[in-house]
Amino acid sequence: MASQIDHLLNESRRFPPSEEFAANAVASPQIYAQAAAGSAEFWADQARELLHWHTPFTRTLDWSNPPFAKWFDDGELNVAYNCLDRHVLAGNGDRIAIHWEGEPGDSRSISYAELTAEVKKAANLLTSLGVRTGDRVAIYLPMIPEAVIAMLAVARLGAVHSVVFGGFSAESLRARIDDANAKLVITADGGWRKGKVSPLKPAVDAALESPGHNVRNVLVVRRGENTVDWVEGRDLWWHEEIAAVDADHVAKAFPAENPLFILYTSGTTGKPKGILHTSGGYLTQVAFTHKNVFDLRPESDVYWCTADVGWITGHSYVAYGPLANGATQVLYEGTPDSPHPGRWWEIIEKYGVSIFYTAPTAIRSFMKLGRQIPQGFDLTSLRVLGSVGEPINPEAWIWYHDVIGGGSAPIVDTWWQTETGAIMISALPGVTSLKPGSAQVPIPGIRIDVVDDDGQHVGTGNGGLLVVSEPWPSMLRGIWGDPDRYRETYWQKFGDKYFAGDGARLDDDGDIWLLGRVDDVMNVSGHRLSTAEIESSLVSHPYVAEAAVVGASDETTGQAVVAFVIVKASQADVASAAEASDLLRAHVAQQIGAIARPRQIFIVAELPKTRSGKIMRRLLRDVAEGREVGDTTTLADTSVMQIITDRLQ
Ligand code: WTA
């Protein structure tokens, strides 16, 4: 960490906005002054301006029962109506909402009028399957238009979706179905990934095999055309059912605090947290940030966010933000390098993408492949670039700026979380002078601070913990079914401030530099993974006596999962270390999903522990990163690290 901070501090390049960009920018410097005059009122103005309210609100923020916030709670709206019908009614029905590109090269462009019609039918279909306001629907789909259609159809009914990333295993899917008590699962036969069809339906079948759930139907979109097993009476083809329903559907208004979705994310303990978001405040902040942070002009821009809808970025900046703003966007099904390493750049050229939002890990993989690949395509349509998910190192920032952005497109480095719902820290293009590597400033209407362990502001030039000091519209409303965990995780530490779990530093100008998680959450390719969750998966295997997992820094993925495992004495001879390690890597992939598969597993005889029995991950991280092992004096047995390193040599 120390070397990373020194390195960042040496970064002194600045990129002020061009005069032309500044003169035409959506955001203006005055917006900060407006917000500073009163953040709740500022958000009320945004909510009125950016959204359609069936019943206007008269109350803005109710913080009488912290940490449970209510925003605009006597107002009523329909989230799907805001993303669809009102654009059609405003005369923009012919505008393309989604340019969908399948991995093998098939494509489909869907106008706002068509998307609205599809969602109306899907809402009628879900109603016919018994979905009512407040019911939970699990969505386990590839990146196809039906993913967005399904989310909006659920939202249109005032029901609650729980999108589960298609890379999660049957077991992870089942845990999420159970936690939310979902009654319907929407999936596909399979989707295209890396040049072939990757089946999805078998995971749903496996997830639902054992009894104890309340899923009545599985709605299956046909995409991969792979053969699937069928449970009569339970499974239904989407295309057959949707052909039979009524095309008319009137969107009803729901209270602003009606739950919109649950999205599971990793925490410091083994069990994923169901982060709950509601309607009016969430949609206000995603629409506001999508418009101002990306300098959006819906009538002319083509926007592309590469995130999967299984993550929060896909919820806020694929589904809700762009559609609430009436934007035209690209949705791409596959992987960046299929069928060739220039696939993304080819898509940018094909659709004339002007705003592009992706993760540093992707930028770093492209850097490794060399600039000649993107240089083979016409990327001159790009005018704003975004980054999300992890700190972007200045080298990757400069490469992104020069090679992808043609040396002129501003880069917005956006900090936020599943819990915050929408962007919280970011430059505004045309307003902020950019600093590579720093997320810079809170967006207007958001109060962020960097504090010490006692909650005191650290002052410029110092590091500490990132907090949000005031409630914000798109904040999580809790953890599904577990209010105590919500309080403990985010509010117990500082009482009146939201503890984000990230370390940060304020530079001499007061700009914010993110320094990574301060808890046991890892960030692998911009995906959050919990050390505890992977450890508990490892110890569930009969070979394993004990396991410790660390996030080791990795040139491309930011961090990588590295595990240290003690094999049970009774099993010690069963497999060689290499075999055991392969077997356990596969076990984790099967239990949690391929994204959690450890990069390496070291079979060790001991784990370094303090006298109170706490595993000293810092020392294991030294080993995993190939460094000299640090101070071992607090270990109960100081020879342990010697034993571990000897064995690994
Ligand atoms: C990290 C993703 C530095 C951070 C939207 C946070 C970042 C976690 C940035 C949330 C950024 C996200 N710079 N770090 N621009 N954006 N992070 O919930 O550690 O998947 O706490 O939300 O990602 O990850 P999540």
Description:
Its EC number is 6.2.1.1. Its cofactor is Mg(2+). It catalyses: acetate + ATP + CoA = acetyl-CoA + AMP + diphosphate. This is Acetyl-coenzyme A synthetase. It holds the Pfam family AMP-binding_C. This protein has 649 residues and is α/β, with parallel strands linked by helices. It has two domains: 385 residues, 3-Layer(aba) Sandwich (Rossmann fold), CATH 3.40.50; 124 residues, GMP Synthetase, Chain A, domain 3 (2-Layer Sandwich), CATH 3.30.300. Helices cover 33% and strands 22% of the residues. It is built from 22 helices and 30 strands. The strands form eight sheets. It has an eight-stranded mixed sheet, sandwiched between helices. Strands 5-4-17-16-18-19-20 form a seven-stranded mixed sheet, with helices on both faces. It has a four-stranded antiparallel sheet with strand order 21-22-24-25. β24 and β25 form a beta hairpin. The two termini are 25 Å apart. The mean pLDDT is 94. The structure holds 5'-O-[(S)-ethoxy(hydroxy)phosphoryl]adenosine. 5'-O-[(S)-ethoxy(hydroxy)phosphoryl]adenosine binds next to α13, β20, β24 and β25.
Q: What average pLDDT do the residues reach?
A: 94
Give the bound compounds: 5'-O-[(S)-ethoxy(hydroxy)phosphoryl]adenosine
Low-confidence stretches: none
Largest sheet: 8 strands, mixed
What's the arrangement of strands in the largest beta sheet? 12-11-8-6-7-14-15-23
Give the total of domains: 2
CATH superfamily of the largest domain: ANL, N-terminal domain
